[in-house]
Structures are given as C-alpha cells and as structure tokens.
UniProtKB/TrEMBL annotation, chain A:
Keywords: Amino-acid transport, Signal, Transport. One of its GO terms (biological process) is amino acid transport. InterPro entries: BCAA_transport, Leu-bd, Leu_Ile_Val-bd, Peripla_BP_I. SUPFAM superfamilies: Periplasmic binding protein-like I. This is ABC transporter substrate-binding protein. The lineage of its organism: Bacteria, Pseudomonadati, Pseudomonadota, Betaproteobacteria, Burkholderiales. CDD domains: PBP1_ABC_ligand_binding-like. The keyword Signal applies. It comes from Pigmentiphaga aceris. Residues 27-370 form the Leucine-binding protein domain. Residues 1-24 form the signal peptide.
From TrEMBL, chain B:
GO terms for molecular function: transmembrane transporter activity. Its main location: membrane. The chain crosses the membrane at residues 7-27, 61-82, 94-111, 131-156, 177-196, 202-222, 229-251, 266-285. One of its GO terms (biological process) is amino acid transport. The keyword Transmembrane helix applies. It holds the Pfam family BPD_transp_2. It comes from Pigmentiphaga aceris. It comes from the Bacteria. It is a multi-pass membrane protein. This is Branched-chain amino acid ABC transporter permease. Belongs to the binding-protein-dependent transport system permease family. LivHM subfamily. It is found in: Cell membrane. GO terms for cellular component: plasma membrane.
Length: 404, 292
C-alpha cells in the first residue's frame, strides 16, 4: 500500500510538471486601471473594451514571447485614493509586468509614482493633463516609466484656440472650466494659448461637478459679449452648459476639449449639444481597413447602444496602447520593466494602430506618442461625432512629426 | 435689469427645489423631534423609480407621479420603522442621526447597483423652449417646479388643519405624551410623518429630474443645501422654508454673477452661520423652551 501511494504521488507530480510545461510559461499580467463607474465611466469602459479587444487579438495570434496576455482590471472610480490603492495592489500582489489606463489626470498624478518607484512601465492612454509625462523628469529622475498615447492639453488647448480665433474668426471668447484638476490645468493651457494670439478671454468662469444651474456663468459670458464658449469639463456638466444656453436663448458655438465627444454629453444635451467641436484622435468612421476592422469587431463584441462607441477616442487609444506594449515586450524579449522601458524608447518595429501608425513613437526624452498634427476636429451632429472638416476626412491618418 | 430678473428667476426655481426638500425635514421634526438625513437619497430614489416607470414601462409622466408618491411614502415609513423607532424607544438622543445617515448610504449603494452610476436623462413632459417673462427666459419646467412645490406644501398644510388625521399630527407635534393620553397613537403618527416627508422628497425628485440629470449621486448636494435652508428658515415654519429656499437660491445665482462663480456656495453658508449665531431657531422659527 505504501509503495502504491508513493507511485501515485509521483505520477501526479509528473503529470503536473508535464501539464505546466505544455502550457508554456505563465501569462503576462497587464494592469488595466480606469473609472468603470461614475461620471467619467463612458471613457473608462470604452478604454477597457479597446484594451480587451487588443489583448484578445494578440493572444489569438499566439501571445507575446509565447505567453498569453492576462488583463487585471481595476475600477478606480475616478478617485485619487482608490487609484493609489490599486497601484500598490497591482504592483505588490498581482506583480503586473506593465499597466495601462488612467482617464483622470488627478488619479494619474497621484498613483503613477508607485509604478515609477517599482520601475514598471505605465501607459496613460486617455488622461490629458500636460504635466503627466513630465512628472518624473531628469535630473531628479534618470528615467521615467510614464508613457502616454493621448493628445495632451498643451496640444488640445492651442488647437481649440486656433479653431476659435484663426479658423472661425471670433474676437471675444469666454472660458468655462470645472473646478477639478483637469478643468483648472486645462484653463491655464487655454489662457496661455490665447495670450500667444494676443487675446484675453472676456470671461473666465468656474463650475463644480454636479452643478445643476449654470445661469450665473453663462450670463457673465453673455454680457461680456462672448462670441464663443471654450470649455474644459466632463460630459454631464458640459450638457448642463449646452442646456443652460438653450434656456437663455443664447446660441454661440461651443468649442472645447475632447470630452465634448463623451456619450453623456451628447445624450444629455440632445439637440442643444449639436455643433460642439473638439479635437479628436479618432472618429468612429471606417476610413481605413484597420479602423474598419476595429470598429466592426468592437460593435460585434460589445454591442454598444445605437452602434455608437461611447467614447471612440478612449477605445482607440486603449486598443493601441496594448499593441505598443506588446511590441515593446517582444523587442525587450523579457518582462523586466527596465528592458521594456528601453524598448519603448527605441521601438524598432512600426506598429499599425487605429489612431496612427506608430513609427518610433517614444524617445528617451519624449514620452508622448501623439503630436499636434495627429488630432482632427470632430463635431457633434445628430447624436454622434463626425468630422468637422472634409479635408481631415480625406487625410485620416497622420504620422508623428519628428521628435523635438 | 434684465439680467437681474433672469438671475432672480433662476434663483427662485433653484430655491424652490431646496424648499420642498427642506419641507420634508420639517415634517418629521415636528412630530418626533428627529430628522431624516436620508432626504437627499429619498429624492434620488423617487427620481430613479419615476424614470424607470416613464422610460421602461412607458407610463405617462402625470400618471407616474402618484405612483412615485406611494413609493416615497412606503420608503419613508420603512426608514422610520428600521432606523428611527428603535432610537426613540430607547430614548437615545442621537441614535437616529447615525441610523438615518446609514440607511441613506445603503439606499445610494443599492441605487448604484440597480441603475448604475451614470447620469441619466429624464424626458421632459413639457416643451423645452423657454418662455419670455419680464424680459427673462424661463423654462416651462421651472414654473412647474415652483408651482408643484407650493401646491404640495399647501396640500399638506390643509390636511393638517382641516382633517381629523391632520389634527392628530398637529396634536402629536405639540405634545407627544399628552396626545398619547388623548388616545392618539403617537407611534403611527410618527411613521405617517416620515412617510409624508419621503413622499415630498420623492415628489421633488420627479419634479426636478427633467431639469437636472438623474443619477444615484444626485441627492447628496441637494439634501445638504436643503438642510441649510431648513436651518435658515427654521425647523418649525412652512413659510420659513419657502423664504429660506428663495434666499439661498437667489444668493447663489447673484453671487455667481456679481462676485465670482468660484464663490457661488459661500454666501449661503455664511448666512447659515449668521442665522445660527443670531437666531438659532431660524428666521421664522419658534424658540423652544427647554427646562432642565
């Protein structure tokens, strides 16, 4: 009996060893962090779905280094303190190889320092605060582990001003920004961009998240004679602005940051929201084969309402972030954070994403994949975002300009 | 002038929203000396239940209102039985504070799980084009909010003064023990007043939902502001909450315009501190005499 038990145990041990060898190595864990609930969830959920789609495609093609990608998803609820907890959990308990996500600038600034300390690359694929990729600059920090593929505010703010002042010829503009990190950093960027054109905003107003009455702010802008309203906020409050303007019977164009494309702006402002324009890195229009494949498989997999991706920009940028990361892990031939960072800073292969084709997107000094020439102008029309200018539509994919 | 009128109109609409919620605080305070700190969440639940009835079940907006009122009444009675009655029974001075706040949080979490955490649009029953009144723009829905709030408060006042049941409520609010000796079941009256207070909140919820957005977190800010209004106006005066609400609403819009939109919330809170310092019973409140 004794002997039989021993052989049995041996047999089990052998089978287990054999099984794990057949399964090759463990999966590569990638953290996915974003607000999947709450006011910015349309961005977070679309981002996560884009990431899932890319990971599934990579895995179907055999994974990276012969290993499958495994996503570890966490909801940060757009709260800084949740973000900090999640960063620590992903690093210490889940031991992720890299992380993607961050929708909210405040959450990113509070949490990415843990990845920096642990030398694990972290991708901001939606948050746009200009300071995000400059948080760990030389000389205090020899290397930064923070990367981004989103059009940051110092790209968007000048674009918004260019559109309002140069293209459409408005002389007087008002700025309406929310009181969060995002809104106030964006307001500074807008004011800087206006100063560069020799213009001062006729009114600069603030509103809080969950404000239900925008009369005071809008009346100030109106009496100051504003010909256009420049906004920095998120969907629900932006909808209150559009609805408030309709109530006052004051119709001037709204031009603002890319968040004007959020589903909860479009749905809550309905007809009042039409005509709003914002910079977009991606518009849900199948004008290249890669984009068509992406949109088709997104719609087939996640079945969003009215065949409209809630936040196409977030979905596209999330999708691309995984492709970039996979290429870097392959080139590094390792899951060591240090080596992946080096590979990202000197990516040898071109990566065809849906936003653009990434050809050396990062360098040691430049961790932003999107440059000013990439975003186009989108416009809200009949419940979705379309191209504002036919020229952009004909020339949909632009490559990054050479690094400064 | 036109601008001031516009600011005042918007302030009144905002203030009446606060007032009708503040009125709910008063109803329970009168009968039992306790407050339902979950008023904001009762409002949110009313709005979300109303949205489900209108949106999913295709019910007419006007038919939905009585159903939401019934729901609000039951919800308030539930809060009283679960959270407040044990505290009153054990003569605990402050137990009801914690338990009503706790129930409010539970309701919010339940709502987040049922309806999600996104803000939803409530279809407007009235045309959305603004009307011109004295040179200022007013939405038909805003007029409905003001009218509906006043009508509701009048209805409750009439009920208290003219019906025998209402007189029982008034008797209980004057002296709970004496009312008990006269054969009034004070326990039922208190449950009833909680039901009534949540009913007003739920009603306020469906009134304002087409103006604001509907979502699990909509009650938090409104409940707090309404509480300030109840303190400013006085916890024992129906007139007080209307005046207090309008003062706070107009103060918010005018400060936002004439001072700075960043300081919009300051004057209301300064007013609250002033009232507490100078006339703690509120602008229209009766000073309670407490013998020790």
């Amino acid at each position: 009996m004794q002997i039989r038990l021993k052989t049995l145990a041996g047999a089990i041990a052998l089978t287990l060893a054999g099984a794990s060898a057949a399964y090759a190595a463990d999966p590569i864990k990638i953290g996915v962090i974003g607000p999947f609930t709450g006011g910015s969830s349309s961005m977070g959920v679309s981002m996560r779905d884009g990431v899932r789609l890319a990971a599934e495609e990579v895995n179907k093609a055999g994974g990276v280094l012969g290993r499958q990608l495994q996503l570890v998803e966490r909801d940060d609820e757009a709260k800084n303190e949740r973000g900090v907890q999640i960063a620590q959990e992903l690093i210490n308990r889940e031991q992720v190889t890299a992380a993607v996500g961050y929708i909210n600038t405040g959450v990113a600034l509070a949490s990415q320092r843990f990845f920096q300390e642990a030398k694990i690359p972290v991708f901001n694929n939606v948050a746009t605060g200009s300071v995000i990729t400059h948080q760990f600059k030389a000389p205090e920090h020899p290397n930064s582990y923070v990367f981004r593929n989103a059009a940051h505010d110092s790209i968007q703010a000048p674009m918004i001003v260019e559109e309002a002042i140069t293209r459409r010829g408005f002389k007087k503009v008002a700025i309406l920004a929310d009181s969060t990190n995002y809104g106030q950093l964006g307001r500074e960027d807008l004011e800087k961009a206006l100063t560069a054109k020799g213009i001062t905003a006729v009114a600069v107003e603030k509103f809080n998240i969950k404000d239900v009455d925008m009369t005071a702010q809008l009346l100030k802008a109106k009496t100051a004679g504003a010909e256009a309203v420049l906004t920095y906020g998120i969907g629900p409050e932006l909808a209150q602005i559009a609805n408030g303007m309709a109530k006052l019977g004051w119709k001037v164009p709204i031009i603002g940051s890319w968040t004007l494309s959020m589903a909860n702006y479009i749905d809550n402002a309905r007809a009042n929201g039409d005509g709003a324009r914002m910079p977009q890195t991606f518009i849900q229009e199948p004008n290249t084969p890669k984009r068509k494949a992406f949109i088709d498989s997104y719609l087939a997999t996640f079945k969003p309402k009215n065949d409209r991706i809630d936040s196409p920009v977030s979905a596209a940028q999330g999708y691309d972030s995984i492709l970039l990361l996979a290429a870097a892990i392959k080139q590094a031939n390792s899951t060591d954070g240090e080596k992946i960072r080096q590979a990202l800073e000197n990516l040898q292969t071109k990566v065809e994403g849906v936003v653009t084709t990434y050809d050396k997107p990062f360098s040691a000094t430049d961790h932003d994949a999107i440059t000013a020439n990439i975003p186009v102008f989108g416009e809200v029309k009949g419940g979705k975002v379309v191209y504002a200018y036919p020229d952009d539509q004909k020339n949909p994919v632009r490559a990054k300009t050479a690094s400064k | 002038m036109e601008i001031l009128t516009q600011l005042i109109f918007s302030g009144i609409a905002l203030g009446m929203i606060y007032a009708v919620i503040a009125f709910g605080y008063q109803l329970t305070f009168a009968t039992s000396g306790t407050l339902n700190f979950g008023q904001g969440d009762a409002l949110m639940l009313g709005a979300l239940v109303g949205l489900t009835l209108v949106d999913r079940l295709g019910l007419n907006y006007w038919l939905m209102i009585p159903l939401v009122c019934v729901f609000g009444f039951l919800q308030g009675a539930f809060v009283e039985r679960i959270a407040v009655r044990p505290a009153i029974k054990t003569k605990s001075e402050f137990g009801w504070i914690m338990s009503t706040i706790a129930l409010g949080i539970i309701f919010k979490n339940v709502a987040e799980n049922v309806w999600g955490r996104d803000d939803l649009t409530f279809p407007s029953p009235l045309p959305e084009a603004p009307l011109k009144v004295l040179g200022a723009n007013v939405l038909p829905m805003e007029i409905l909010v003001v009218g509906g709030a006043i009508a509701l408060m009048l209805a409750v006042e009439l009920f208290n003064r003219k019906t025998i049941y209402g007189k029982a409520v008034v008797a209980t609010s004057n002296d709970r023990d004496a009312a008990g000796l006269m054969g009034i079941n004070a326990g039922i009256v208190i449950t009833f007043s909680y039901g009534l207070s949540s009913l007003t909140a739920a009603f306020a919820g469906v009134l304002i939902a087409p103006l604001t957005l509907t979502g699990a977190t909509m009650g938090a800010v409104l409940g707090l502001k309404a509480f300030a209004v109840a303190i400013i106006g006085g916890l024992s005066s129906g007139m007080g909450v209307v005046v207090g609400g309008v003062i706070l609403g107009v103060a918010e819009t005018t400060t936002g315009f004439y001072l700075s939109t960043g300081y919009k919330d300051v004057p209301g809170l300064v007013l609250l501190l002033l009232v507490l310092a100078v006339k703690p019973a509120g602008l229209f409140g009766k000073t309670a005499i407490k013998k020790v």
